[in-house]
Amino acid sequence: MSIRNPPTAYPGKDIALGDLTVLRTLPARGRRMIGPWCFLDRFGPLSFTEGMTMDVAPHPHIGLQTVSWLLDGEIAHDDSLKSQAVLRPGGVHQARHLLA
């Protein structure tokens, strides 16, 4: 990337994942070099009271990998495959979803 060719900004669109709405920037029609299974989502800031969780709709574990990068706050990840992790600011969480 050079100053003569700055990166292009692509607008996102709101996508509902269960009770959670994310701003999805990828995949995008104008980014053909990025595969259709590469998602770039932004969500938050969110606040929860005790006993309330971030509910992401059920989804298949079909051999994909997800990477989460947390900028602020804390997320406890717990899924149907019994995977657990705590993510804190600046931390990166990679989940490899094996075929189920």
Number of strand elements: 7
Radius of gyration: 16 Å
Kindly report the spatial arrangement of strands forming the biggest sheet.
Answer: 1-2-3
Summing up helix and strand content along with how strands pair, one would put the structural category as mainly beta
Uncertain stretches of 5 or more adjacent residues: none
How many structural domains in the coordinates?
Answer: 2
The overall average pLDDT, rounded, is 75
The tally of helices reads 0
Beta-strand percent range: 25-35%
Order of helices and strands: EEEEEEE
Distance between the termini: 39 Å
Principal-axes geometry comes out as globular
Helix content: under 10%
Main beta sheet strand tally, sense and closure: 3 strands, antiparallel
Description:
This protein has no helices and seven strands. With 100 residues, the protein is mainly β. The chain has two domains: 1-54, no CATH class; 58-100, no CATH class. The strands form three sheets. The protein has a three-stranded antiparallel beta sheet with strand order 1-2-3, with no helix packed on it. It starts with 12 loop residues before the first strand and ends with a strand.
